[in-house]
Amino acid sequence: MNRQKKIKQLLKAHAKKANAKLAPRSNKPKYISKADRLKLEAEAVLDAPTQAQPAQG
Prior knowledge:
Structural class: mainly alpha
Largest sheet: none
Helix content: over 70%
Radius of gyration: 26 Å
Order of helices and strands: HH
Number of helices: 2
Shape: rod-shaped
């Protein structure tokens, strides 16, 4: 009985890990490095003046 219990326990643990991999991720936002954040901020600053100008016509 002890051997069967251990095998069953192992199989259950493997199934649990496999299900965890397939499960959807948490709602935690994806990590963005500091350099990327600065780059995105710089792009936003450059794009802001072009969007603020009214259309002539």
